[in-house]
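Hi there. Long-time user, first ticket. I'm pasting a complex I've been working with (about 644 residues overall). I'd like to know whether the download I got is complete or cut off, because the file seemed smaller than I expected. Thanks.
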Amino acid sequence: MNTKILGAFAAVALLAACSSPETAAPTPAAPVTAGPTPGSQEDLVANVGDRVFFDFDKSALKSDGQATLDRQAAWLAKWSQNRVQVAGNCDERGTEEYNIALGMRRATAAANYLMAKGVAKARIETISYGKDRPVALGSNEQAWAQNRNAITSVK
Amino acid sequence: MKHIGGDRLTGGEMIHSETLPGSRPRLLRVGRRGLIAGAAGLLAAPSFAGGAFAQATPAPAAPAPAGGQATAEITVDRARTAPIPIAIPDLVAAGGDAAQLGRDIAGVITNNLARCGLFRPIDPAAFIKSGSAGDVPNFADWKVIGAQALVTGKVDSLGGDKVRVEFRLWDVLPQAQIQGTAYTTTLSNWRRIAHIISDVIYERLLGEKGYFDTRIVYIAGSGPRDRRVKRLAIMDQDGERNQFLTDGRFLALSPRYHPTRDQIAFMSYLDNKPRVYLFDLGTGRQSILGNFQGITLSPRFAPDGNSVIMSETNGPGADIWTVGLHGGRARKLTDTGGAIDVSPCYSPDGTQVVFNSDRGGDQQLYVMGADGSNVRRISFGKARYATPVWSPRGDLIAYTRFGGSTFQIGVMRPDGSGERVLSESYYVEGPTFAPNGRVIMFWRETAARDSRGNGFSSRLVSIDITGFNERVVTTPTDASDPAWSPLQS
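Hi, the file is complete. Here it is re-exported in full:
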């Protein structure tokens, strides 16, 4: 919670610095560092990887997905106050009700992996949005591949 | 006077019906809401009667002008290839607002009968306006333009917002009146009167019950798909009187209509906790159904209206449960560990449940006893099968099928035989039966043509169970997840 608020302040500070009309030179005294606040959602997205991908109608974690979850587990070990939501999602080539359960199966696969790597169960919440929260809006394999995922976000 | 049924959405006004003078009053049946439904007055023997109508008692002909003998045997099967030519002139009125109402009611009836595909309303431009004496039409005028059936009526304002709508159905060739009924109600109920008259015409001429006095509950979609707003919505079966029931702050999915009450079961993402809720149409309130750890989804009412069958996710899979609406413990019907069991639907007699499971490797249809016993697979085609719904007649199961690059809506017998595809497209899903089992509604999505999602659309579509007469149902926004209500009267 604290880190999230700090993250928001840091973002505001960065924006303020960028919009300074006179000079691009940063104020030397300001403790602003480039990049997202460590431990924040932005940090997770930029430096760890917030999502893993699945094959059509599958929930098996692939090797790159496992590598992403290994980094998430390590990051969660470091930022031990963080709680996360793992949301499972599906592409549009499946029926709605089944896809809600399939999304849950994907979220569960990712969450179980994190728990096996030492993240406490109480810190992870799972949910499924079925096919109702696609990331990519196209109707092609490239878009569908992006939409078959489990996305971790800081609560 | 008979009470046809209240309409809680428009203020609880009752519709009264009476048989017209000269006819023999007759009680048809007790309505599903416990009210006496429909007083069908017969002036002549039913002339267009098809086979299914034989069970109704024909009344003796009273003032049948020319014998009242049956001249045509019209069944649904015949009407499908040769729709019944029917003339529906504007209901007559003294003038003013009543005249407008007469035109509007005739318009709604015409639209209903034309859309169902089994009637061919004759273009009013062909009508011969030679006038008629009293209530008996000049049959020669209607015979010459090819009308087999004729609907006449009149509208009287009774003062205030009360109206009396009289209607008669005529068999043109034998010059016989088939039906005569008058309805008294408030002006705001005029559409329901038109639908009730449409159902009477359908039933008298085709020998089976109609489906026009019904509503569709569905999900209205708007906004970009990555931030899609999905609202619970309801409308008449012809797309009129649309109302949004939720405000879009949370996702709403998969609504179903209660078999006897004005309640809807649906899935709601309220507070980011996806669960099955009950929505009360009278109060607009929603309440969570059951107390589950997992996500609950895909609700369906039991035919007796006393419980809801649904799925709960258990991590990797989902199990099927029933939850009583009047207390009592939830009961688990399937327990397969990691398999996904979703979309359960009862047979109309309540003894069996068809559902969707991937226990065999991919999505297929299974049937089990209502207690969870004797599970057997019924779909064996080279495709995935989903969203099964049992016909109210009990004779068919409709489903979504997908294999290759398309999705299809199909029907099969409950034992899995006789599979037929009714509609095929880039994406179709979610059939729902009209209460007479004759028509299916589902939704159809078009593919996005670019990476911003342009070109995507979602529309409701209706089709006859024989696969003919496919029509888009007009909705104010994108629409999905249709569920047909029972007959409202």
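A couple of notes from our side: The longest strand of chain A covers residues 149-154. Chain A has one domain: 37-154.
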